[in-house]
User: Which sequence fits this backbone?
C-alpha cells in the first residue's frame, strides 16, 4: 500500500480529478495549502509596502492506493496537472503501513479500495 | 424658482444613486471566484473616480447641452454656464448643478454594469480605455437622444422615466458585445465557477434596491406625488420579481435560492425603471412578475444553449429586463399617473408602443456597433484580455498585486 501526496496548481484540480476517475481512482482527499518551490510568488503591494516571495495557493491531494494502482495514479496526476512550466507541482509516494475502514473495521488492502 | 424641498430631495437621491455603484461592486463581487473579487470592486470604484471627472469636464455637456439630434456638443465644457439657477427644460425647481450631479451618478453606474460580462478576464489598462471611450461615444449620445434637449428620441416622444433605455438596454447590449469579443473564460466546461460569496451578493442587492429609490423616485426631480408613485411602483416591481424568480426556481429546480431572489429583485428594478413615472401599481406587479420569466429564460436556458460567456449576466438581466420594461411602458403608461407622459397601448394609444419599440431598436443597433468598434480598437491598441496564466492566477494578484483573503492569519 502506498500513500500518494500530490501538490498541484489550483486550476488543475478539475483536470486531475477527471483523469483519476478515468483510471478508476475515486477515493481522494483534497486540501488547499500554501507553498512555493522554485516558482516565486508574485509580489503583493499594500500601501506601497512590498511583500515578496509570498506563498502561493496550491492544492494538495492525498490518495491511498494498493500497489497495482500506484503507476496509474501517478500517470493520471501528471496527465491532468502538467503544463511544462515551473509551478506544476510534485508527487510524493510514501509507504503506507496500515489502513482501516471505520464502517466495517476492515484492514489493509481491503480497506483501501 | 428654486424649491428647497425639491433641491434637498434631489441631492439626497444623487447620494442614493452613488451608493448603487459600490452596491453593484458587491453584487458582482460575490459572484466571481475569490481570486477575482478585488478586481471587480476595483473596476467599480475606479469607474466612480474616472467618470466623475469625465462628467464634470465634458460628459455632462455632451449628454445634456442643448444640441443637434446626435449629441450636445461642448457648450457646457467644464460646467461653463451650468450654475445654481434652474435649467427649466430639465428641472424647473432645483439648481442646474443639482440636476447635473444627479445625472452624474447615472453616467457612472451605466458603464459599471457592463463589468458583469467580462469579469474575471479583462486587462485593467484596457478596461480603463474601454470605459472612457464607451462613456464618451456611447453613453453620451444615447443619453442625449432620449433625455437631452434636441435629442431625436425625446422629440419622437419616447418615454424613459429613469433610464430603461439609456442605462439598462444600453449597458446590457454592450455587455453582450463584450462577452462575444473577449470570449469565454478558460476551462469553463470542467470548472464551472461558483459564486464565492453569496452573502456579498445579497448585501449588494440590498444596496441596489435601496439606491434604486433615488434612481427612480429621484427621477421625478421634485419631492412630489410623481416621486411617490415611482417609489411605490419600484418597490412593488422588485418585490414581485424577487418572488416570481423564487417560484420559477422552485418549480423548475426543486428549491428556491437566495441567489435567485436577488437576481429577480434586480431584474424587477431594471424593468420598472423606464416605467416608474408612468404606470400605477397593478401594472408594476405584472411587470415584476413577468420580468423574472424573461430574464430566467435568458440566463438559464438561452445563454447555455448559445454558449456566450456573459459571466454575471449583465446582458441577461439588464438588456432583457430593460427591453421588457421599455416595451411595458408602451403598454401600461397612463396619463392618469403622469399627465406629462402619454397613454400606452392598453390605454388606447398603440402608437406609444411603436415609439418605445423604435427607441429600443435604435439603442440596440447603435450601441451594438459602437461598442464593437470601441472593443476592437482597444483590443488592437492594448489587448483586452489577460494572458491564460494571469487568468488562472486571478486578476487580484496579477492586475493589482493584492488579494482579498488570506489562508493563514
Assistant:
Amino acid at each position: 500500500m502506498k500513500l500518494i501526496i500530490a501538490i498541484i496548481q489550483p486550476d488543475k484540480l478539475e483536470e486531475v480529478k477527471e483523469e483519476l476517475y478515468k483510471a478508476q481512482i475515486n477515493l481522494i482527499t483534497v486540501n488547499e495549502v500554501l507553498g512555493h518551490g522554485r516558482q516565486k510568488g508574485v509580489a503583493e503591494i499594500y500601501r506601497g509596502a512590498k511583500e515578496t516571495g509570498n506563498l502561493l495557493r496550491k492544492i494538495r491531494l492525498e490518495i491511498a492506493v494498493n500497489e497495482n494502482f500506484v503507476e496509474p495514479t501517478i500517470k493520471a496526476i501528471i496527465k491532468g496537472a502538467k503544463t511544462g512550466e515551473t509551478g506544476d507541482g510534485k508527487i510524493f509516494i510514501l509507504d503506507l503501513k496500515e489502513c482501516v475502514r471505520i464502517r466495517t473495521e476492515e484492514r489493509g488492502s481491503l480497506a483501501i479500495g | 424658482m428654486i424649491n428647497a424641498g425639491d433641491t434637498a430631495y434631489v441631492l439626497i437621491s444623487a447620494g442614493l444613486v452613488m451608493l448603487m455603484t459600490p452596491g453593484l461592486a458587491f453584487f458582482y463581487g460575490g459572484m466571481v471566484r475569490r481570486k477575482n473579487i478585488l478586481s471587480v470592486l476595483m473596476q467599480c470604484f475606479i469607474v466612480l473616480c474616472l467618470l466623475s471627472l469625465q462628467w464634470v469636464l465634458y460628459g455632462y455637456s455632451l449628454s445634456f447641452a442643448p444640441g443637434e439630434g446626435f449629441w450636445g456638443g461642448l457648450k457646457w465644457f467644464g460646467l461653463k454656464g451650468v450654475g445654481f439657477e434652474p435649467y427649466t427644460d430639465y428641472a424647473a425647481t432645483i439648481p442646474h448643478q443639482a440636476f447635473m450631479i444627479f445625472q452624474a451618478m447615472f453616467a457612472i453606474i451605466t458603464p459599471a454594469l457592463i463589468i458583469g460580462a467580462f469579469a474575471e478576464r479583462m486587462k485593467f489598462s484596457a478596461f480603463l480605455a474601454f470605459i472612457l471611450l464607451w462613456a464618451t461615444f456611447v453613453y453620451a449620445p444615447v443619453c442625449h437622444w432620449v433625455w437631452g434637449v434636441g435629442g431625436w428620441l425625446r422629440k419622437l416622444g419616447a418615454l424613459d422615466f429613469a433610464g430603461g433605455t439609456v442605462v439598462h438596454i444600453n449597458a446590457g447590449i454592450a455587455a453582450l458585445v463584450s462577452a462575444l469579443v473577449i470570449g469565454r473564460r478558460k476551462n469553463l466546461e470542467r470548472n464551472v465557477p461558483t459564486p464565492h460569496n453569496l452573502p456579498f451578493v445579497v448585501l449588494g442587492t440590498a444596496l441596489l434596491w435601496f439606491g434604486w429609490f433615488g434612481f427612480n423616485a429621484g427621477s421625478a426631480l421634485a419631492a412630489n406625488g410623481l416621486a411617490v408613485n415611482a417609489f411605490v411602483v419600484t418597490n412593488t416591481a422588485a418585490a414581485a420579481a424577487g418572488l416570481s424568480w423564487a417560484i420559477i426556481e422552485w418549480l423548475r429546480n426543486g428549491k428556491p435560492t437566495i441567489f435567485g431572489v436577488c437576481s429577480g429583485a434586480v431584474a424587477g428594478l431594471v424593468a420598472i425603471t423606464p416605467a416608474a413615472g408612468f404606470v400605477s401599481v397593478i401594472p408594476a406587479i405584472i411587470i415584476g412578475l413577468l420580468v423574472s420569466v424573461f430574464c430566467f429564460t435568458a440566463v438559464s436556458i438561452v445563454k447555455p444553449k448559445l454558449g456566450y460567456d456573459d459571466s454575471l449576466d449583465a446582458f441577461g438581466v439588464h438588456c432583457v429586463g430593460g427591453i421588457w420594461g421599455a416595451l411595458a411602458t408602451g403598454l401600461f403608461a397612463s396619463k392618469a399617473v403622469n399627465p406629462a407622459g402619454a397613454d400606452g397601448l392598453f390605454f388606447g394609444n398603440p402608437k406609444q408602443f411603436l415609439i418605445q419599440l423604435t427607441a429600443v431598436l435604435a439603442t440596440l443597433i447603435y450601441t451594438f456597433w459602437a461598442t464593437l468598434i470601441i472593443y476592437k480598437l482597444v483590443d488592437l491598441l492594448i489587448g483586452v484580455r489577460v494572458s491564460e496564466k494571469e487568468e488562472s492566477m486571478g486578476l487580484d494578484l496579477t492586475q493589482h498585486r493584492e488579494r482579498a483573503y488570506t489562508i493563514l492569519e
About this structure: Chain B has a mean pLDDT of 95. The longest helix of chain B spans residues 350-381. The radius of gyration of chain B is 20 Å.
